[in-house]
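Annotated sample (chain length 147).
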Amino acid sequence: MWPPYKCDCRHVIFATLRCKALVVHDGGVEEQASSNQFLKGALDLCLLAVISAEPTYGYALTQRLGADGLEVAPGSIYPALGRLRRAGLVTVEERSGDSSQVRTYYSLTAAGTDRLARLARSWDDFNASVGKLLHGTGALPPRQEDR
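Output written by the structure step:
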């Protein structure tokens, strides 16, 4: 949802790339969640993962990510897809859609598959390290399976 819009309490909500809204109130920032920053860092990984399942087009990518709780504006998806294409990680193919419109489908290249594997391992290691730190310091309660 860009440009930002105002909710009933007059907060300005920015929603270009977010999982939850970042609210600006009276000149200060009340952070509901900084997951938008996490998603920015993981967007290429997420796009590669979805594309690895089957060739897909931009709007379908935004729908799939949104269904998994990752709200990404088309204005963020298409530059990222272009970057992945220029890096040789995805290929593009023009196909006619249901309503005879042409859609650009993205597929992984061999280099894209390799990059996805490396990024997924890095993400898993990073996630495990952060989780260990947060649970070890008491910032998060122990997991159910750790009790």
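Annotation: Helices lie at 35-53, 58-67, 74-86, 110-136.
Annotation: Residues 36-139 form a domain with the Arc Repressor Mutant, subunit A fold (CATH 1.10.10.10).
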